[in-house]
Amino acid sequence: MSWIILILAGFMEVAFTFCLGKTKSAEGQTLIWWWTGFLLALAASMFLMAKAAERLPIGTVYPVWTGIGAVGAVIVGIVFFNEPTSFWRLFFITTLILSIIGIKVLS
Question: Distance between CA atoms of 74 and 90, rounded to whole angstroms?
């Protein structure tokens, strides 16, 4: 169950990154909603990460949480914000994913 909570915490990190990205182009009331979404996703991410850390080692929790967030942020950037896609960018994201899997396998 702790791993599921940790994965949800990582997804919440991706959500707050998405909201933060949307604030760059929002105005007025829409901007307030994106900032609210950012703060709620941030709080949920921190809470879920702390819950996962109750049962899993912090040396596992934090790298997995940041890894999910980093990979998710790159994917969100490519899909929603038209950020560049290059061989090397995808290569290094793949190595990050493999590293996260390695941490899971070894813990």
Answer: 9
pLDDT in tens, 9-66: 999 999 999 999 999 999 999 999 999 999 999 999 999 999 999 999 998 999 999 9
User: What CA–CA distance (Å, rounded) separates 85 from 106?
Assistant: 31
Q: What is the C-alpha to C-alpha distance for residues 48 and 15, in angstroms, rounded to an integer?
A: 13
DSSP state letters, the chain: -HHHHHHHHHHHHHHHHHHHHHHTT--HHHHHHHHHHHHHHHHHHHHHHHHHHTTS-HHHHHHHHHHHHHHHHHHHHHHHS-----HHHHHHHHHHHHHHHHHHHH-
Q: Report pLDDT digits (tens) over 95-104.
A: 998 988 888 7
Q: Which amino acid is at 52?
A: A
Task: Give, in order, the Cα–Cα distances in Å from 2 to each of 14, 36, 54, 55, 61.
Answer: 19, 27, 8, 7, 10
